[in-house]
């Protein structure tokens, strides 16, 4: 089991990362909540990971802190929720809002996420309500675990790139339809301005789609 990576951040194309650990490049998939906290390329990054082995692939998922990884691991124990859907959930809704939605039995907030229908939302609420107690949640969303996040994680700085295309690609990878992604990114760019980073565009788009 690979539980933690510490190395140089070589590439980041949401939701995928490439991290050099002593000359070995690890391909990692991460939620957008983790992406928002990444350092710039070439800097050292520390991620807590979850390793999944399937018949056709070996996948590594990375998280900025233990709390998000724990929530991911709890999500994939829910019937009908696999790693891809769990990553989409963690990208489209904050920990606080997810816990609040479960506590308030707010299915409407969950069904706005791609891949989460009414039945899945109801199942999440029923099965996660008891499991959240094991996460030691206080005030409906403040995770209290020893260790916490790494203080060296900084705000992202991207090199020059086609931010709009990268943002659209990220939304599609997270499960949104291409038409939805294009429309959402266009609206986000209009709201933020042409110079917005891909992370900002994704953040604004996800916010509008899950709350609108």
Question: Any overview of this molecule?
Answer:
The radius of gyration is 17 Å and the shape is globular. The protein is 44% helix and 20% strand. A five-stranded mixed beta barrel has the order 1-2-3-5-4. The protein has a two-stranded antiparallel ribbon with strand order 6-7. By secondary structure, the chain is an alpha+beta fold. It has three domains: 60 residues, Nucleic acid-binding proteins (OB fold (Dihydrolipoamide Acetyltransferase, E2P)), CATH 2.40.50; 77 residues, DNA polymerase, domain 1; 49 residues, Ubiquitin-associated (UBA) domain (Helicase, Ruva Protein, domain 3), CATH 1.10.8. Helix 7 crosses helix 8, helix 7 packs across helix 9 and helix 8 crosses helix 9.
- H/E order of the elements? EEEHEEHHHHHEEHHH
Overall number of domains: 3
From the structure provided, what is the oligomeric state, counting identical versus distinct chains? single chain
**CATH top level class name of the largest domain:** Mainly Alpha
Shape: globular
Low-confidence stretches: 136-160
- Report the mean per-residue pLDDT as an integer: 81
